[in-house]
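Key result, reporting period 2: structure in, sequence out.
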């Protein structure tokens, strides 16, 4: 599978005003006006509907590991509680966050720091506008909290992942 995305996001203070993630290989564009999120394909716009049905969780294994040695996403992938409920996928791209918003993925977890990253901004804006639950690894506001991120399609999936992550962060 070829993965590449073109991202753009406009932020005013802590709020995203608009954002777009374009996937040239699938010929899809995902965008947000800061309130709602949509997929455009073949000239048709469809509202995004997050869903955790797939149980697929994209994970970023790239260093630096801001919460190491207490927590690293690779540790979560091997956790028996994670393996019994979710299926890991290893990818780090704004498309991974967009896939959470579209219902193609249940969640995305990274130990990276998304707060000032252009690589995360558009995908995060689309996730939030679609109604996903997005926090730092401790469950706090990702914009002001600790490094790391859990973006989940729904509150139940987010809570399950947060419980697993907290085992390591103590």
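The corresponding designed sequence is given below.
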């Amino acid at each position: 599978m070829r993965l590449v995305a073109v991202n753009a996001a406009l932020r005013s203070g802590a709020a995203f005003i608009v954002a777009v993630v374009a996937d040239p290989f699938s010929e899809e564009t995902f965008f947000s006006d800061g309130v709602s999120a949509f997929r455009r394909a073949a000239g048709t716009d469809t509202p995004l509907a997050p869903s955790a049905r797939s149980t697929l969780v994209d994970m970023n294994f790239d260093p630096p590991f801001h919460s190491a040695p207490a927590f690293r996403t690779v540790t979560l992938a091997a956790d028996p509680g994670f393996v019994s409920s979710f299926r890991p996928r290893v990818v780090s791209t704004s498309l991974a966050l967009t896939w959470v918003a579209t219902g193609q993925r249940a969640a995305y977890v990274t130990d990276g720091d998304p707060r000032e990253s252009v690589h995360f901004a558009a995908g995060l804006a689309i996730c939030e506008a679609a109604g996903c639950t997005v926090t730092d690894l401790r469950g706090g506001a990702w914009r002001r909290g600790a490094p790391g991120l859990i973006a989940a399609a729904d509150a139940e999936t987010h809570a399950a992942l947060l419980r697993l992550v907290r085992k390591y962060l103590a």
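Strands lie at 6-12, 15-23, 28-32, 37-41, 44-47, 56-60, 87-90, 107-110, 133-135, 149-152. The first strand starts at residue 6 and ends at 12. This case is discussed further under Risks and Mitigation.
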